[in-house]
Design goal:
By secondary structure, this protein is mainly beta. It contains eleven helices and 39 strands. Helix 5 links the parallel strand 13 and strand 14. Helix 3 packs across helix 5. InterPro entries: Ig-like_fold, Ig_E-set, Papain-like_cys_pep_sf, Transglutaminase, Transglutaminase-like, Transglutaminase-like_sf, Transglutaminase_animal, Transglutaminase_AS.
């Protein structure tokens, strides 16, 4: 009988509180040990007797269904051997009496996931009761390809569980509070389930490029029964309206419980959930909003907008080409798979728009490739490039003798890809990151980047974009039949300009009052035929209702301006507002034709409604595990009733999400709802509330509270 057969392990202490602080994983709501790769963690063994020099002791870490040493999925670590086991290391730190403390360091490129642990002493095998260890990517580890050197950025992009997603329009950007909640109960397990569901080989789980691409596919339900089902129809009775979600937690918890897609999401929901999944796995991530985002450009970098004579966008022609905003994600990593110089932020997108390699997935695409015009680089850089750089071409469609006559009204080459936004590091404000995606509009670098991109994008037979050459429009104009006529554009000489403004905020129930300003900037006298229309549309550019239009002829002389009012009464739009479940924007389009010249001008503006606020009453500080009351108060200051009101509230680390049915709220009426809160974690915590109704889709508020011991 060998002398170490009597050596048995009686207990393994995972030293969770000590390890998790060192590994920045102490916030995860789980009883298991969670550590980051490439960084040492300690284990304490209790033995049946003290350890002797001749004893055989080894720790076996395994991952996946068929763990094997050659594939790096089984690591047999012997503290007394110097053999390299897939880059993992083990050492005895301290051995006194029956206690033995070991230090284990996983490889900085180890596969991410759940590892099982067994301890072998001679012929004896000990399997701890909770024998699984969760291993994550490590932005703190210099050897990890997701290493991020700045501590403030790590706090924001990995550890912050709340934030904002920017929505609205380029003229009127709103911050939507969003709870990412990557540390909440069962979120880590949901992410591990997604990793298993991705069917990635274990060797691929080492690589954040492959993992982030797989997650961009799994967060949408297309192809693979993923997390969120997209719906842009305006009808959401069989699920939760995309407007109503307060964060990712309820979505991922429901998905993990039912293993079925959650209804419904739109772009900010996909992005919010993807930020949660990435931060949870340890990949630095941020939600990014692109205003005036180009879609469906067929990679010819052109979006065609068709207007009728009143200046109304035609619903039946490529109506979905420019979204007011679109939200995707950036993730931080080195790109060892590309030539040097493309490390850092990479764009990924979980909103199902176009298939990439047969699946609805997008990215990772280096921001530097988009900026420099290197759009041949993987993945999906052509698609991302077009979203932020396409030209917008306006056409007027007029029927003459049974044919459609297309007149080109002009090209906007600078409006697409504006105010690209994300939450600032360590501050509750918007940061403009357009410069990370593109050079300043009109600069020499921008033109060089554009030329470079076009050289890769140009399929044979398609001509380059209008800013390089005069385009024979017949080649690339879609929706045009042979008998239709196409007229080319003219360069303006008169110096006439258009502006669209609203003096008063837009409030549901009040008239919509907009001013179209016709300005002359040079000497001379001009007669201008003006047509301007007002439409209700969703953020994807889908027109829901034509509200009204004006046609007027105005005269401008010298350097002067004329103001033309456009007024829409509440009766004309309130009904339309209540029939769709989407948040609507008021879209104003103006066309000016200068008499006696071939000149034509167009201008568009997308305006958002403004709503009365929700008030939050609660103390500024609280103590852990001590109850306090939080009250939400809302007064309907609009002069219309709000029907079917629901209030959703959530406080991460304070209380679980709750929904209050408030019924109909008449003008002037005040509602008050209260939640009893029990903080479970210290630090600055946020409470978020969101009110939805038939008329008003999204009123949000957040309030911070400091929780101490």
């Amino acid at each position: 009988m060998s002398q170490d057969s009597d050596l048995k392990v009686t207990k393994v202490d995972f030293l969770k509180s000590q390890n998790s602080v060192q590994h920045h994983t102490d916030a995860y709501n789980t009883s298991n040990l969670v550590v980051r790769r490439g960084q040492p963690f300690l284990l304490q063994l209790t033995l049946s007797r003290e350890l002797r020099a001749a004893d055989k002791l080894s720790l076996h870490f395994s991952i996946g269904e068929r763990p094997m040493e050659p594939t790096g999925t089984l690591m047999s670590l012997n503290p007394r051997s110097t053999r390299n086991v897939s880059g993992w290391q083990i050492a005895i730190i301290k051995s006194s009496g029956t206690e033995c403390t070991l230090s284990v360091t996983s490889a900085p490129n180890a596969a991410v996931g759940i590892y099982g642990l067994m301890v072998k002493t001679g012929p004896n095998i000990y399997k701890p009761e909770k024998n699984t260890v969760y291993l994550l990517f490590n932005p703190w580890g210099e050897g990890d390809i997701v290493f991020l050197s700045n501590e403030a950025e790590r706090k924001e992009y990995v550890l912050n569980d709340t934030g904002y997603i920017y929505v609205g329009s380029a003229f009127n950007i709103h911050s939507k509070p969003w709870n990412f909640g990557q540390f909440e109960e069962s979120i880590l397990d949901a992410c591990m389930y997604l990793l298993d569901k991705s069917k990635l080989k274990m060797s691929s789980r080492r690589d954040p490029v492959v993992v982030s691409r797989a997650m961009s596919a799994l967060v949408n339900a297309n192809d693979d029964n993923g997390v969120v089902l997209g719906n842009w129809s305006g009808k959401y009775e069989n699920g939760t309206s995309p407007m109503a979600w307060i964060g990712s937690v309820a979505i991922l918890q429901q998905y993990y419980k039912t293993k079925k897609p959650v209804s419904y999401g739109q772009c900010w929901v996909f992005s919010g959930v993807l930020t949660t999944v990435m931060r949870c796995l340890g990949i630095p991530a941020r939600s990014v909003s692109n205003f005036n985002s180009a879609h469906d450009t067929d990679e010819n970098l052109r979006v065609d907008v068709y207007l009728n004579e009143k200046g109304e966008k035609l619903k039946w022609m490529s109506s979905d080409s420019v979204w007011n905003f679109h939200v995707w994600n950036d993730v931080w990593m080195k790109r060892k798979d590309l030539p040097s110089g493309f490390d850092g932020w990479q764009a990924i997108d979980a909103t199902p728009q176009e298939q990439s390699q047969g699946t609805f997935q997008c990215g990772p695409c280096p921001l530097k490739a988009v900026k420099e015009g290197d759009v041949y680089l993987p993945y999906d850089s052509k698609f991302v490039y077009a979203e932020v750089n396409a030209d917008k071409v306006y056409w007027r469609v007029k029927e003459e003798n049974g044919r459609n006559k297309y007149t080109k009204l002009g090209v906007e080459s600078q409006s697409i890809g504006a105010n690209i936004s994300t939450k600032a590091v360590g501050q509750n404000r918007r940061e403009d990151i357009t410069w990370q995606y593109k050079f300043p509009e009109g600069s020499a670098e921008e033109r060089a980047s554009m030329k470079r991109a076009v050289s890769y994008l140009q399929p044979s037979g398609l001509t380059p974009r209008s800013r390089f050459a005069a385009v024979p429009m017949e080649v690339s104009l879609r929706n045009v039949s042979d008998k239709d006529t196409v007229q080319n554009e003219v360069v303006p000489k008169s110096g006439v300009q258009l502006e669209i403004t609203n003096e008063k905020p837009l409030c549901p129930g009040n008239p919509i009052e907009v001013t179209i300003t016709v300005k002359s900037t040079v000497a001379g006298s001009w007669t201008v035929d003006l047509a301007s229309s007002c439409q209700l549309q969703s953020y994807t550019g889908k027109v829901h209702a034509n509200l009204g239009y004006i046609k007027q002829t105005v005269k401008v002389e010298g350097q002067s301006e004329v103001h033309v009012p456009l007024k829409i009464m509440p009766d004309a739009y309130m009904k339309a507002l209540a029939t769709v479940d989407d948040e609507e924007h008021v879209h104003v389009t103006a066309i000016a034709e200068i008499q006696g010249t071939p000149e034509k001008l167009t201008k568009e503006a997308s305006l958002s409604f403004e709503y009365p606020p929700i008030q939050v009453q609660m103390p500024e500080t609280a103590k852990v595990n001590n109850d306090f009351t939080c009250a939400f108060i809302f007064k309907n200051k609009l002069n219309v009733p709000l029907d079917n009101c629901k209030l959703m509230v959530e406080g991460l680390g304070i209380f679980k999400m709750a929904t209050f049915d408030e019924g109909d709220i008449q003008p002037g009426r005040i509602i008050k709802s209260e939640v009893i809160c029990t903080p479970t974690r210290v630090g600055e915590k946020k409470i978020v509330a969101r009110l939805t109704s038939n008329q008003v889709k999204d009123i949000s508020v957040e309030k911070a509270i400091t929780v101490t011991h």
